[in-house]
Amino acid sequence: MAKFEKSKREIVDVDLEIEKLTKTKKETTKKVVKQTEKKQTPKKKETKNKKKKESKIINFFKEVKHEMSKVQFPGRKEMVKYSLATVIFILFFSILFYVVEIIIAALKAWV
């Protein structure tokens, strides 16, 4: 029963996760087998293509929704910390480039 920390908020049992993954793999293979076993009745190609396109689009948005549920957005404290670090980084390099420019200008005037 190995356990690991999936995120800061939840601890997950590895064995349960592996079991879930194997179940989903088995279900998908069963679906594929069932689909190949079924005989396809001849239909118009236009309706098939249209249905395939619609199902692809619907599937895409379902996957997007699923992936967005996994996203962890930073909290207020983290955003303030990252923003402050960015502003300090920009100020540091702007001052550095300004000093380098003044030194180059002074050397150019001296020569």
Could you give a quick summary of the protein structure above?
The chain has 111 residues and is mainly α. It has 3 helices and 2 strands.
Please explain how this structure is put together.
There is one protein chain. This protein has 111 residues and is mainly alpha-helical. Among the domains are: 1-39; 74-111. It is built from 3 helices and 2 strands; from the N terminus they run E-E-H-H-H. It has helices at 14-37, 45-70, 76-110; strands spanning 3-5, 11-13. A two-stranded antiparallel sheet has the order 1-2. A hairpin with a 5-residue loop joins strand 1 (3-5) and strand 2. The longest helix is centred in the last third of the chain and has 35 residues, at 76-110. The N and C termini lie far apart (74 Å).
Enumerate the strands of the largest sheet in spatial order, edge to edge or round the barrel. Answer: 1-2
The N- to C-terminal Cα distance equals: 74 Å
**Rg for CA atoms:** 29 Å
Number of helices: 3
State which percent range the strand residues make up: 5-15%
Biggest sheet record: 2 strands, antiparallel
Secondary structure layout:
Elements: E1 3-5, E2 11-13, H1 14-37, H2 45-70, H3 76-110
Antiparallel strand pairs: 1-2
